[in-house]
Design a protein that fits this description.
7-stranded mixed beta sheet
């Protein structure tokens, strides 16, 4: 499975030839200035919640790529008002079988408001169950006991978790989350973009190493195999 990092919490995963983009926030991220947004392709765009640092490029990229947008009911309703028509609403606890595999929506403990100030619904995480591998994207979240339910859904090959602290889990809580979800390969997101979430990469890598958890921090614009 190919994973491409576009910075902050924006990434893409390729499954069965389908390119799935998550939480598009690129043009407003100075750290992602070298990413060629016009070259991005997507068949689906999944949105975990409505904060601007997760939806800033949603409308433009959905129109550019023709992707199906998948999110909670409130965000999908808002996206429809912005002129998008390829939309799939979901909500916490629900699952759906797409052409690349099955996705189940799970709890994320955070807040959610849309750029225009309207209600963004409950934030969510996503568990992907596919023939090419299984993974969990937590979205922005605190450490929560709901994570202990994840292993009952499927066995994970990797998980994508925030590690920047202040607005979300920090490194210590992300390590605890890795234990709860029974996953030893973590891709870190939601760090360094703003002053509040800057991390010492060397120190964080050491914390994960001491806990026996592999932490991957791919460079912005790079693609890795997971």
């Amino acid at each position: 499975m190919r994973y491409t990092n576009y910075g902050h919490s924006c990434f893409a995963v390729e499954i069965k030839g389908k390119r799935i983009l998550f939480d598009p926030f690129i043009t407003h991220n100075e750290l992602a200035s070298k990413v060629d947004v016009q070259a991005i392709q997507a068949d689906y765009i999944f949105v975990s919640h409505g904060h601007e640092d997760h939806v800033a490029d949603l409308i433009s990229l959905a129109k550019q790529t023709g992707a199906m947008v998948v999110s909670n009911f409130e965000i999908i309703t808002w996206a429809g008002k912005q002129g998008l028509t390829k939309l799939h609403p979901m909500n916490t606890g629900g699952k759906w079988k797409f052409d690349f595999g099955t996705v189940k929506c799970v709890v994320a403990q955070h807040s959610s408001g849309l750029p225009d100030g309207t209600y963004g619904g409950n934030p969510m995480g996503f568990v992907f169950i596919t023939d090419e591998g299984n993974f969990y994207y937590s979205g922005d979240t605190a450490l929560t006991m709901d994570m202990e339910l994840i292993p009952g859904i499927t066995e994970l090959d990797f998980a994508v978790l925030p590690i920047g602290d202040n607005f979300t889990m920090g490194p210590e809580d992300a390590i605890a989350a890795a234990e709860m979800i029974e996953c030893e390969k973590i891709i870190g997101i939601h760090y360094d973009t703003f002053g509040y979430i800057r991390i010492d990469k060397k120190e964080v890598m050491q914390l994960f190493d001491e806990a026996g958890v592999e932490l991957l921090l791919p460079e912005i614009g790079s693609t890795i195999e997971v």
